[in-house]
Hints:
Number of helices: 2
Shape: elongated
Amino acid sequence: MNDSFVTAINTQRITKDWMDQIAVNLSNVYTPGYREVQGTFKSFMNGSTLDEIRVKTFQGKSMPGTSPENVYLEGQGFFVTKRPDGKILYTRLGEFTFDGEGVYKTREGYNVQGYILNDKGEVQAGVNDPNAARADDNLAQIPTTDIKLWIDPSNGKYLGKYEEFEIKGDGVIYGKADKGKIKVPLYKMSIMNFHNPAEMTQVKEGYYIENEASGKPVIGRGEVRGWLLESSNVDMKADISYFQQAKVQLDMANKLISTNKQLLEEALKLLQ
């Protein structure tokens, strides 16, 4: 037989967790690149538990960026970044900029990852690698590198050669010289996806790591567009509805706890 008092306490606890999760979603409605997190309830003998925390993976709308270095990924996948400790994190937030040393970084200071290209636009798997021309077919297994476009102080040009850069839809970064007449492929941004991206583990707001449930990274598909960012994919209307449902559930649990307390107090009086 279930203990209604224990059930009510468990329901109260887990409903508060649910409300906290919804509140985080609602507070990030306007946060670029934020992915909504949802949880489902699972019943057990003495109450409920919040189970199957999942990241919603559908596309957020595009919004204006603040720099031509900002990028928006229209399609399936994640940009690849690397923390100072070497940990690889995946994100949809393309609020990237080049720092003073020409390293392409996230707002948090993580290095954006990509691949070095030869003048034909082919990914270089390694120095003097005879299979370099075929590297594009196996990007998920090729180590990434930091993207660097340092500016030569003697002439103010990128890598000492290019007046400007351009990011194309396939994620290739070009150096441009001679008023755009010369355009050389330099890097290709790394974009990875997962067989089950909804199961990825969020380690920081907007940043995720792979796990056993998500599977290993595979090549992502999509178009990279400059000057844009991806907006949050939070469904505000739905989350407000969930919050109202949670409030009703919490009120019912509180009422049940109060009733059980009164019954316990009456029982103790009878024993005196």
